[in-house]
Amino acid sequence: MGVSTTAAADYQFRQATAEQRRWALHNLFPHWDGREETQAEAQAHAASPPSAEVQAARPLLTFNEDRFTSHHEPALYLSQPTAYGDRTAVPGDCLFASISYALTGSPSNSWLIRQQIASHIERHPDIVSNAAVAEVAGPVRPGETRDQWVRRYTQGLLRLSTWGDDLHIQLLCDLARVNVFLYRQGPGKQPAGGGSPLEAWTLYSTKDGPGDYPVIFLLHEPGHYKSVTRVRSY
């Protein structure tokens, strides 16, 4: 549920704590036992990724709190972003990698996040529009049911090169129980819409409203997303 940008005036730029982000991750990954992926496991998985069934049964998350904390600088007000978290080198994966960094301190968990969102869409195919499905899966095929068409969409969403959008931000809010502040930046690093930096922030929250849920901060500029770690102080 997008909320009026005037809500941004009521928030400080303060990232969720490690405890809050772990809570959100348990919401998103109900079977996560809290154990972090070791460096050896990360290297092994990079060389030979485990199957989707194995990942779902026991997801291993890279949770790098030191890396996250060293980048984040709190501020009293939401303003123009000036610094960003670790990014992905994979074109098309910027939204999910940014979410991954904002929750875990590492962009490397992006595929796991994609998987949870794709699985939710597959269970609830009516939440995605025909236009969005066609953009990823192409036109419906002769004799294909809509559920089958959406299934091809969710399989496409698992490709790291498939772009994310507002729907996936909204589903993250609902599944992880988080709020997402998204800064919309236009050409020349100016606030989109020509207003003030404060007016460029939009709050996404759960269907029940923002509540007292953890907050993460993202930026969207034409063709790209980033995780925000610092804003301008006045």
UniProtKB/TrEMBL annotation:
GO function term, MF aspect, one: cysteine-type deubiquitinase activity
Gene3D superfamilies documented for this protein: 3.90.70.80
Protein name per UniProt: Otu-like cysteine protease
Domain OTU: from-to ranges: 83-231
InterPro entries for the chain: OTU_dom (IPR003323), Papain-like_cys_pep_sf (IPR038765), Peptidase_C85-like (IPR050704)
Keyword Protease belongs to the record: yes
Alphabetical keyword list: Hydrolase, Protease
PROSITE patterns (UniProt xref): OTU (PS50802)
One GO term of the biological process aspect: protein deubiquitination
Transmembrane segments: none
